Each structure stands twice: as structure tokens, then as C-alpha cells.
């Protein structure tokens, strides 16, 4: 699949916004801690990815009812769904001047009832974009940081009308962000998240 930038200007994928608030002290402090002792930007990107994947539980997996959406809140509260974790990883990457984009998959709910958008991150190295999934591993899910072939949490099944969206966005999808901001808890969020772009 060929990934395409929604915004041609690469600087947009380094910008801060209300969700990817990489200028916030919590994000800056976390980025500085992760950058200590790493050899280069690639090692930093892997470290940031593994930090978000492994130390911030996916709220559905942990049954945490809280809804986070701003990167700094995800890092502070240590919880979030895939979209929130993607915002956190994008913020940590951008804090160290590594271009990061948000991207999406359309997947079937775990119970098979309908579809939901799944949030990912793409990181830019050596003139190319590489998708990464920081949602968190669990039995049956083994996502890994990789520039040499995708190691995502899920592979869409076209027979179930699942799909990868090839467009890379500098900002969160407005429907996803609105649902995250409005949800009083995770169970309410499940009913309002968009099912497609």
C-alpha cells in the first residue's frame, strides 16, 4: 500500500496542536528521559514507541473507564485507547523533530458487531513513511516497531469490509477527536467513535 500525505508540507507533521501537545512540559520531560543514552533518532523512535506500547495500558484491555485524548494527559494518566496512544506517540516523536503522522484502519469490533476506526502512527525515516501501532500487545496481538515491513497489531480482512486507509494526517480525525472529547467514559465512547473516515 502506498501511503500519501494529506498535507504536502512536511512541517505540518512536526507541529503541535491541542491533541498532539508536544510543547507541554510532561511531553518534553518524557521525551528528554527517553532520549537519554540513545544513539540516534531511530533508536529514540523505537524507545518512544515501546514506551507508549508497553507502559501505557490500552484502556479497553485494562478496563479503565477513563477517556484521554491529549498526549500530555495520556502520558500523565497512563491510559488511553488506540487513538489517544497514537496522539502520545506522535507528540513524543515530534518533540524530538521526527515527523509523525496519524493514520487509520477500519476494523471489526472484537465482538463482531459493526466496525470502528483504529488509530495508528506513521513515522518518517530515510524519505519514507512507516506505519507503527502502539496500541499495546496482548494474546493474539504482537505489534513491533519496524522500518522493514509492517508489524501492526491488526491486518484488515477485506471480506469483513475492513481496510487500511492510505492517507497520513497531520492532525487527528475531527470525528474521532470530537468523540474522545465528549465521552464521559470509555463505554460511552464505544457508541460514538466513527466507523469509517
Automatic annotation (TrEMBL):
<dbReference type="InterPro" id="IPR002931">
    <property type="entry name" value="Transglutaminase-like"/>
</dbReference>
<dbReference type="Pfam" id="PF01841">
    <property type="entry name" value="Transglut_core"/>
</dbReference>
<dbReference type="InterPro" id="IPR038765">
    <property type="entry name" value="Papain-like_cys_pep_sf"/>
</dbReference>
<protein>
    <submittedName>
        <fullName>Transglutaminase domain-containing protein</fullName>
    </submittedName>
</protein>
<feature type="domain" description="Transglutaminase-like">
    <location>
        <begin position="29"/>
        <end position="134"/>
    </location>
</feature>
